[in-house]
Amino acid sequence: MSIEANEEFRPKIVAFCCNWCSYAGADLAGSSRLAYPADVKIIRVPCSCRVNPMFILRAFEKGADGVIMCGCHPGDCHYSTGNYYARRRMTLLFSMLDYIGVENGRTRVEWVSAAEGVKFSTTMNEFVEKIHSLGKNVRLGDLRCRN
Amino acid sequence: MSTEKKQAEQIKEISGVNPLKCMKCGKCSASCPSYNEMDIKPHQFVSYVQNEDIESLVNSKSLWKCLSCFACVERCPRDVKPGKLIDAARQIVVRQKGQDYLLADEIPELLDPDVPQQLLVSAFRRYRR
Amino acid sequence: MQRIGVFVCHCGSNIAATVDVKKVAEMALMEPGVVHAEDYQYMCSEAGQARIQEAIKEKNLTGIVVCSCSPRMHENTFRKAVERAGLNPYMVEVANIREHCSWIHKDIEEATKKAVILMRAAVAKVNLNTPLKPGESRVTKRALVIGGGIAGIQTALDIADAGYKVDIVEKTPSIGGRMSQVDKTFPTLDCSACILTPKMVEANAHENITIYTYSEVENVSGFVGDFTVDIRKKARSVDMTKCTGCGVCQEKCPSKKTPSEFNRGLNNRSAIYTPFAQAIPNVPVIDREACIKFKTGKCGLCSKVCQAGAIDYDQKDEIITEKYGAIVVATGFDMIKLDKYDEYAYSQSKDVITSLELERIMNAAGPTKGHLERMSDGKPPKEMVFIQCVGSRCSDDRGKSYCSKICCMYTAKHAMLIRDKYPDVNVTVFYIDVRTPGKNFDEFYRRAVEDYGVNYIKGQVGKVIPQSNGKLLVRGVDLIDQKQIVKEADMVVLAAAIEPNPDVRKIATMLTASIDTNNFLTEAHAKLRPVESPTAGIFLSGVCQGPKDIPETVSQAGAAAVKAIGLLAKDKLMTNPCTAHSDELLCNGCSNCANVCPYGAISYEDKEVNDHGKREVRRIAQVNSALCQGCGACTVTCPSGAMDLQGFSNRQILAEVDAICR
Q1: Which chains neighbour B (Cβ–Cβ under 8 Å, 3 or more pairs)?
Q2: For residue C237, which of C298, C306, C168, C189 has the smallest C-alpha distance?
Q3: C376 plus C483 within the same structural domain
Q4: Which of C623, C531, C572, C67 is nearest to C328 (CA)?
Q5: CATH number 1.10.1060 is the correct assignment for the domain at B3-127
Q6: What is the per-residue pLDDT across C547-570, written as a single tens digit (0 to 9) for each?
Q7: Same domain, yes or no: C488 and C344
Q8: Is residue C239 domain-resident?
Q9: How many B×C Cβ pairs under 8 Å?
Q10: What's the CA gap between C283 and B126, in Å, rounded?
Q11: Which pTM value belongs to this model?
């Protein structure tokens, strides 16, 4: 792996957003022109409970530096209980990731409603900043995927 | 942190009471048998703690007029328990003086298990004061 | 391999100003499967859509990626456009390069880079898209209303008036519900029976309404549009077709010691009874627990006096099975039990009563013929005390955490009526807050204070002590005057909290409709879908959803009816094709998926599978696509990875992840 010293570190960040709240919140951040770094790429899922831990592991394996999952606020899930399942799964997954050396700061769960464009944008700004402070993720990357 | 703020926090900690839960219904004062003897009424304990006016609370007559009968604790619909607040304030006074009046040897061997422990403890404090 | 077309939208300058759209289109051509790419000013316009349609025909495209605004905005537009060109609408994916890219980034190079990545992710997904077909299910044009109170009656009337058949299932021997027990209604003080009974009669006479009283829902299966319901019609022991409702049997019945449910136990009823005089149907039932004939075999007096020969001691419970398209829950409420409130002496004194009991005492058809008197000695009271919020707004385990909403108003009503009819009676109300949001509500309460001289005291009562002289010692507090109040009262009225009918738990389980910690049914959306349950085809009417007064209940009943009519008016339901499905070779029948499904859409069946030549019968999860809403909870829960979600499959999402991290 070779990163030239003068090359600016641009993290790869995957954001899973539920269709009903967080994706709409991201849309609102867009229509309110609330900037956040272009490093964040959003994947739309029907509900936060659709996010399989496998997706997150795969992202890290493929070289992602951070993964954030956003869903409806607890109690507001479009499917009533989906975000509760997601919350439990992510708690387990993140502690396991931490155990194998993927720092807790690289993973995050945030509840963003369709009305919280500001929250979406500030969350993403914070998260990207955090990833910058942690630097490149080298722990889980599949060496075969590297140059 | 100011002394009073510290004391207010101490009262909350000792009593385990969250004064913010109070909905100001007054059922505590309605239940209190020593109401007429008190200068600060049971339903006011909460706001004194909330406003961190512990000075007035510990200097009040109420502090030593409360019988610790627990009627207010039993009947409070919001789990605020003014009786526990005033008891905590009492403990602060006792602790402040650096004197613990109760010696372990002095506790009778046989206690009526139905007597709330707190009643016993506060009775001891008053007796020894 | 798909043949994919990528269409990049300028959105005027909204996208084109910060994203090099030509570059995005150019890069698209380098992606696997992409055979066509172009950019255009406004992709969503008529002309833009025509370009997509032309390209589909010319280049034989099988998948479409539109790089434009949010899919929440125009996904449907593009789906319809490709459908018109003969392509399956679910072969479209939208890359959101406006809200998620051009609008939030300023640097053109950076924004273009990101737009390319988003395009790649969408292309990667479309490569794995499969044509999806919405399912169809038929709609049975008949509605079921559970509960025959004012909520159920109103809902049934509204649905029936729209021309659909409705059945009402009511547990007690008569429809009418709580409202029939109420004497007068606030804030107009018109008599409850005078406005309710015409509606009961109308429901009974309506050609589209069938009423099953003394009946309960026993089993529910099926799904939206196609429910199958078993209704247990309990044995009435009276032939409804023969009975004339003359009432002689009730007069002659020798067993008259059962507390009347209708009068809240304030007086007794006979073993054969109709709950009240205006009952509908006006056909009595025999309470077999109290009937001497059923207990000892001797008696049979009612049968002897019945000239119509309607008494039938051998009648059996009957199960009626019927199909419905929609189900409305209108199970209503009851007062909470006050056995945990010893300090108010409810169980110790007959003169401590609940508001609903006072309602019966004030009613001309009630146990005291409408005379206000003490239940202990029949004497008229001189001092009356009302205590508010008994069991409401409690955070301990004795009461309910919510405000019961109706008590402030009915207490003002009671106080006003008493002061009006008996001006020499002093009325004191102990309150914590007086909550009167509603049209003409606060004016009503102020009238009680200003015109009728009701004494409102801000403060609570701590204890009610029955005295040896028959009076009640009330110890309360006046928080404004800072005084403890000790007064003797003749009667104490408790505004007990209301709670959902306890039966609602059982019914909610049968319907797989969710309920909250207080047993209120949950609505699909607290603000925007307040009369629908999250379970499709189940609607909510009245207090089963949350505390409300009569006007609110009636409006909600109408709203629930409209939603049910909207469903019944459809001949067929198109179902969302993005549903879960299980791979029968991988499924091990563990039930984990069914446990997390909020819609009860997953069931199990024993099915013969061919596992690489080995034939065996296995227990396999089946998803009912009419019920599945496509959340995907089951897909992640499945330990063997057998569950997948169409439209958001594991492979599709992984492909997106790969494309983004590439």
Answers
A1: C
A2: C306
A3: yes
A4: C531
A5: yes
A6: 999 999 999 999 999 999 999 999
A7: yes
A8: no
A9: 66
A10: 70
A11: 0.75
